[in-house]
Specification:
15% strand; 274 residues; 12 helices; TIM Barrel; homodimer; alpha/beta
C-alpha cells in the first residue's frame, strides 16, 4: 500500500486508528479457551468488530512467539484472514527487529514474502545496513523507532551529543537519507506530546506510528495538535484499551464500542483537513 | 547455567567457541532438501560434529522465523536436541529483541519458559524497562548489544555526547546497574579489536559475546589480546565459516575441521590463564 492509498483510506473511514493485536492467552475471555485456536478465534472476533473503524492492525510478535508453534500458527491465520477479508487494511508487524545485513534480509523475507505484512517496526541501534534490507520491497514499509513511549526511552534516546542533538533526532535525520516518506515511517511515543512539534520540524511529511494512547497514558488531542500534517501523517495505535475492553461473551462488542469512541474523536480532527 | 559453570566448561573443553546456527535453506547441501525437516537434519549433523569443540550454540532467530511454521518447528527441535543430548552447552537465542515492559515480558516467556534457552540478545535502544523483564529468570542471561561488528555500528553507537562519552559506553555504564556480571553479557563486534581495551575498562569482569570472527573479518588473536580476562570472559562466535565449510555430503566433517581449527587456537590462548 502506498502513502496516497493509506491517506485515502483514512479519509474514507474518517479514522487513523491502528488496533494493536497484543493477544495474551492469559487475558482473553475464558469461554474461548476450549476452541481449537483460541488466539485466532479472539483475533477474528476483534477484527470483524473493529475493521470498519480502523485503517491498520498491528500484531505484536512477542505475544505470538511466546506460544511457540501454536502462537505462530495463530499469527499466520490472523494475517491471512485480514489480508483476505479486509484487503484495504494496513498490516504492521510490531517486531522491533534490527540486525546485520544478512540477518535483516532474512527477517524481511519472513515478514514480506512468507507473510503478507505491509510494514515492520525496526530498531535503529545497528544503523543503516541493519535497516536497508527491509527497504528493498516495493510497496512495503519500515517503521523505525525514534522516540518511544516507555520510561526507558530516557536512558539513551534523549542523550544529547556534542552539537546539542538528541539521539532520536539523529536517528530521524540520518534515516531520512535511507528512504523517502513513501517507504519509511517513525514510531513516536504519545506520552511525550510536546516533542511532536520538534519531530515535525525534522520529518514534516512522514507518517508517525503513535503507540501509548490509552493504557500507556497519552492524549490523542495533544498528538493531533502537534503531530498531524496535511495528509494526516498519523497512525495512532490502541491495543489493550480496545481488545480487552470486555471480559465476557460480549468482548467483541465492547471492543467495537471503544474503537468507535476513538474513531469518532478522530473524525472530528480529520474534518479540519478538508 | 551460572558464570562459574560456563568458565569450567571453557577450561574443560579448552574452547570458548560459540557456533552460530544461521541455517539458510538456500545454503544447505542439496541432498538434505528431501528430508522431512531439512533445517533440523542439517543442524543436528552440525551439532553432533562440533559439540566437543564448542561451549555454546547460537541460533539466529531470523533464519527460522523467515520460514514460518516449518522454521519454528526446526528451531524448537534443534534447541530441545541440544538441551537433551548436550546439556552442558550454553544456548543463546540471537534475537536482538527489546520492547516496552509488557512486551519484553512476553519475549522472555517465549525464550526462557516455552523454549529452554540460557540467554537472549537484547537491543538497548528502549532502555531499562525493555531489558529488565529478561532478568527475572534465575540462571538466565541477557546479552545486551553494545558495539556491533557491522558498518552501521558507526551511525549511532559511536556518537559522542556532550561529556565525550560514546553511546555504546553509555550503554555499558548504565546497564551495569541493571544486573551483575552473573546475568548480563555484552555483544562486542570483533572487527573493532582495539576498542576491546576501552570496553574492558568499563566492564572488566563481564563475558563478551563476540561475533564477526571469520566471514565478518575479525581477528581472534586481537580479540583475545584486548578482551580476555582471568575467567576468559569471551564467547567467540563463528557461523558461516563453520556451518557452510562444506557443500557436499561431508559438510559435517568440514564443519568439524573448522571448529577444531578454532578450538586449537583457543586452547593456546586459554593455556595462558593457568
Amino acid at each position: 500500500m502506498n502513502k496516497q492509498e493509506l491517506f485515502e483510506q483514512i479519509m474514507h473511514k474518517r479514522s487513523f486508528l491502528c488496533v494493536g493485536l497484543d493477544t495474551d492467552i492469559k487475558k482473553i475471555p475464558t469461554h474461548l479457551i476450549n476452541e481449537e485456536n483460541p488466539i485466532f478465534s479472539f483475533n477474528k472476533a476483534i477484527i470483524d468488530a473493529t475493521a470498519a473503524y480502523c485503517v491498520a492492525y498491528k500484531p505484536n510478535m512477542a505475544f505470538y512467539e511466546c506460544m511457540g508453534l501454536k502462537g505462530w500458527s495463530a499469527l499466520e491465520k490472523t494475517i491471512r484472514y485480514i489480508r483476505e477479508k479486509y484487503p484495504e487494511q494496513f498490516i504492521i508487524s510490531d517486531a522491533k527487529r534490527g540486525d546485520i545485513g544478512n540477518t535483516s534480509e532474512m527477517y524481511a523475507r519472513g515478514f514480506f514474502e512468507d507473510l503478507p505484512f505491509d510494514a515492520v517496526t525496526v530498531a535503529p541501534y545497528m544503523g543503516e545496513d541493519s535497516v536497508k534490507p527491509f527497504l528493498t520491497y516495493k510497496g512495503k514499509w519500515v517503521i523505525l523507532l525514534a522516540l518511544t513511549s516507555n520510561k526507558g526511552s530516557q536512558d539513551f534516546q534523549l542523550t544529547t551529543d556534542a552539537q546539542g542533538e538528541r539521539l532520536y533526532e539523529k536517528v530521524l535525520k540520518k534515516s531520512r537519507a535511507w528512504a523517502t516518506d513513501e517507504q519509511m515511517m517513525y514510531v513516536v511515543g504519545a506520552t511525550q506530546g510536546s516533542m511532536f512539534a520538534d519531530i515535525r520540524k525534522v520529518v514534516p511529511n512522514h507518517f508517525l506510528l503513535v503507540p501509548g494512547i490509552g493504557a500507556q497514558g497519552g492524549s490523542l488531542a495533544e498528538v493531533v495538535k502537534y503531530g498531524m500534517n496535511d495528509q494526516c501523517g498519523l497512525l495512532v495505535n490502541s491495543s489493550r484499551q480496545i481488545i480487552y475492553a470486555g471480559k465476557g461473551k460480549d468482548f467483541a462488542v465492547c471492543a467495537q464500542t471503544e474503537a468507535i469512541k476513538l474513531q469518532e474523536e478522530m473524525a472530528g480532527y480529520l474534518a479540519q483537513l478538508k
